[in-house]
């Protein structure tokens, strides 16, 4: 049931308790950081609100009336309960502020997030982080639904309903096994040739697939894929077994290219650079650990 209009607010009850304890409105006012006239006016307003006199005033100070003593006891219970509530809320806020849920596209999660989270741990060691992975379309859906404090996506633009900031740059590369004919050719593959070739691709909804589809659209569009796989690891394995050309992030193939387990194929007339973005709901700028992580991930856009 709603509170009666005769119940004073917590601040007024705290003032009454201070007067009862200190024996003086002036001393109570000084302790609570208000002026004596303001404290006196507040006590009088509380007496009018309740409908009884609460204090007996004399040149020696103020003490509760008989009714005032009852109100003081009741007020003490109310103020102690309010203090417990305030402490509990602070504890809840502390636990909330010490938790961070991040959902990231696979490329970002596998190749960039470990370093970023290590930096976050050094800056805020008490922050507990949950990292989930999904393709870029699902990342956007999770962030919009409020399932994550911060998301990271690949792709040419910021998903609808989200605001974002570019935190890094990436480039897609076409790679094949050393035995593939493209590994030995002397001239680059053309964009039209790539568009006409069945590739091993990420699934629809991934940022990698979106960028490649958009880049090849002016050249006839992407051919029906030879295979669709859901991770960079699976794409690399397929390429190394000779399943066909693969297009994926250069971040994912640094080691394989260095050891010649895969060979990069130059592609003529195709820009496969893409930004990597942090995203959050429009109108809700990241705060707390999410804001700290965002600051740690920001870096100049690199061109490979």
UniProtKB/TrEMBL annotation:
<dbReference type="InterPro" id="IPR036390">
    <property type="entry name" value="WH_DNA-bd_sf"/>
</dbReference>
<comment type="similarity">
    <text>Belongs to the LysR transcriptional regulatory family.</text>
</comment>
<dbReference type="Pfam" id="PF03466">
    <property type="entry name" value="LysR_substrate"/>
</dbReference>
<feature type="domain" description="HTH lysR-type">
    <location>
        <begin position="8"/>
        <end position="65"/>
    </location>
</feature>
<dbReference type="InterPro" id="IPR036388">
    <property type="entry name" value="WH-like_DNA-bd_sf"/>
</dbReference>
<protein>
    <submittedName>
        <fullName>LysR family transcriptional regulator</fullName>
    </submittedName>
</protein>
<keyword id="KW-0238">DNA-binding</keyword>
<keyword id="KW-0805">Transcription regulation</keyword>
<dbReference type="Pfam" id="PF00126">
    <property type="entry name" value="HTH_1"/>
</dbReference>
<dbReference type="InterPro" id="IPR005119">
    <property type="entry name" value="LysR_subst-bd"/>
</dbReference>
<keyword id="KW-0804">Transcription</keyword>
<dbReference type="InterPro" id="IPR000847">
    <property type="entry name" value="LysR_HTH_N"/>
</dbReference>
